[in-house]
Amino acid sequence: MFCEKSVELIRELHRMGDGQLPAFNEDGIRQVLEEMKALYEQNQTDVNEAKTEGKSELIPSIKFRHSCLLRNQRCIAAYLYDRLLRIRALRWEYGSVLPTTIRFHMCAEEMEWFNQYKKSLATYMRSIGGEEGLDITQDMKPPKSLYIEVRCLKDHGEFEIDDGTVILLKKNSQHFLPRWKCEQLIRQGVLEHVIS
Amino acid sequence: MFVTDIRKEFYDVVVNQRVALFVSPDIDALCACKVLQSLFHCDQVQYTLVPVAGWQDLGTAFMEHKEQYQYFVLINCGANVDLLETLQPEEDSVFFICDTHRPVDVVNVYNDTQIKLLIKQDDDLGVPSYDDIFRDDEEDEEGDGNDSGNESDGSAEPSGKRRRYDEDALERRIERQRARREWEARRREILFDYEQYEFHGTSAALVMFELAWVMSKDTKDMLWWSVIGVTDQWVHDKIPHMKYVTDIATLQRHVSRHNHRNEDEENSLSIDCMRITFEYDLRLVLYQHWSLYESICNSSYTSCSFKLWSINGQKKLQEFLADMGLPLKQVRQKFNCMDMTIKENLREVIEESANKFSMKDIRVQTFAVNFGFKNRFLASDVVHAAAALLENVEKDETSADNFIKALDCLSRSNLERLHLGIDLAKKKLKAIQQTVASCICTNLILSQGPFLYCHLLEGTPDVKLFSKPLALTLLCKYLLKAFLCSTRNKRCKILPLIMAAPLDVEKGTVIVLGIPPESETSDKKNFFGRAFEKAAESTSSRTLHDHFDTSVIELKMEDRGKFLDALITLLS
């Protein structure tokens, strides 16, 4: 049946809930585009036939193929757009450097889009909040305290905080650090917030 | 140098700085660490907490952090060794040491700049006076340039001087050298007496709590932690009973102060709030989380009084239970499920019957904490749970992992971990009881002359548990008490005990531990630290003196024989 491939693309994206980004399904898109091309060509021939020879019984099939084309277009557009939304959320979650596993799942154009998005977010952040700009990706929820206690889950090596001092993050050491420096590392799983 | 005003000289100095905390793995240190951490959270002092298991760990941790930190706080480590020589720090590093190990090394006491000791000076320290140990170089007219206390004779003077002086000068020099030799001999004697016995002072958690109290930042949580710290010292037999009673009295004052602050007729506290109460409770280990029967069987006091490893002992236990009128079915049930009528007067009933069976001290002064309807813990329960977590050998985790888990279990929000610790503690106590029973029954304790000796073989069940110092200490003390009850030999009753257990089968090492002889009025002073060092030196055995307690060492299996022989000759 027509349009099944494109619905499968949608289903694949729907299955990976929670903002995860599956690999870019180049194959799937290519197949859908081929299907669209085939339908279009069939429609072209039929339209020409209908016009020249006046075969009005071809009209329903032309209409049917046209609606299939529209459906495929809508599915692909939804697929691409949803992926872009997920990629945008990744910037807020992971920061400007994405883990390599996620980068493999994006196609070249998506990377391009991501870089553009990063740039425009950075420009915006620089423009607000006075001279130095304001990092709005920090403190997504109002913080309860300036400093938090964190525990190191794996050896991360040296870590520099704002006043230049360097802290050695070794496994099982606990530190009391400013909240904003730790958030990145907590998201990456290097540190764990200790609530006592 | 001793710190006189702990607030000004310690806290106000570090409050604006970043601090590195090195904490040793015992419960008292964990509690002191928790108190200090909450103070730091209050004042937003940035710190890094590193658990250190021994001297090597301390050295490595120091090397890693010395670039970034200027102020170091050491909890329950570092006072009994010349710290500056061991760590070789820079000129500007400052160490704050809050340690219960005594005697405090004289270099640490008399160093004015880099070492600050957070130790209460009324602790009966007996530090020798400065002039007895250190000698000013300028007193030497000859300008020999000797370091204080060096034994070398005076260096040869240039021959020019000798010509100028005549026999008077020669006599004076001989006189001076004789005086110096006498001084040095006296110094050696003084130092030997001072450093011979190792013992423990006031709990570090109590010191930290008093710091919090002085700053009016003390909370009930901190008070509870300091209670646990003091109780840990008593459970692991580090302090004599009198000192424990005195410390409990101090804590009791704080507890009543906290309780009266909040309790009022109109504003009584909600049942979920933490409430610490002073209890004159039974000496049965974990009895409220276990069945009464199990607790009686596995507590060292009752087990040794009844001699539960023998059949007579079992009979006596049954008599005891019958005397109290407690049905066996009730007694074997979980304590929480026992009949309310039995639980009501349980303590008094047990005390009465215990007196008949010559157990005069079945009750001991301690504290309990209540929060919510379900949660009630005695201080000793928490100590056993935390110790079991700290030395957990069930999963193959590093000591730092266990340290973190034990640290977590002290917070009220981690009750599951505390319950897990209680379960592990039950297993540990059962293992100890069984090992003691088998050792007594198979006469594994041998008298070597100046001490008793027991060696746990590799195939012994649960022997992995005893590769850790705290568990081995408990086993040792229990075993010594049991031995005293079961032996008829009068002379053996005043002997100390040395115990060896396999540590690492592949490397072929054993852990060796010595405890002082058991007596009613023992002051818990342990001379095995120095004895082990000397014995190891004289036989050049391959030993590792890594633990902060000098009476615990690691030794290679093959060197065991000659090491013991050396000890016997040393101590005879």
Automatic annotation (TrEMBL), chain A:
CDD domains linked to this entry: GINS_A_psf1, GINS_B_Psf1
Keyword DNA damage: no
Residues in GINS subunit domain copies: 40-128
Location(s) in or outside the cell: Chromosome; Nucleus
Family: Belongs to the GINS1/PSF1 family.
Biological role: Required for correct functioning of the GINS complex, a complex that plays an essential role in the initiation of DNA replication, and progression of DNA replication forks. GINS complex is a core component of CDC45-MCM-GINS (CMG) helicase, the molecular machine that unwinds template DNA during replication, and around which the replisome is built.
Subunit structure: Component of the GINS complex.
Protein name: DNA replication complex GINS protein PSF1
Gene this chain is encoded by: gins1
UniProtKB/TrEMBL annotation, chain B:
Compartment(s): Nucleus
Biological process annotations from GO: cell division; DNA replication initiation; double-strand break repair via break-induced replication; mitotic DNA replication preinitiation complex assembly
Example of a GO cellular component annotation carried by this entry: DNA replication preinitiation complex
Main location: nucleus
Acidic residues: bias regions: 134-145
Keyword tags: Cell cycle, Cell division, DNA replication, Nucleus
Molecular function per GO: chromatin binding; DNA replication origin binding; single-stranded DNA binding
Region described as Disordered: spans on this chain: 130-168
PANTHER family listed in its UniProt record: CDC45-RELATED PROTEIN, CELL DIVISION CONTROL PROTEIN 45 HOMOLOG
Family per record: Belongs to the CDC45 family.
UniProt-recorded name of the protein: Cell division control protein 45 homolog
UniProt organism field: Carassius auratus (Goldfish)
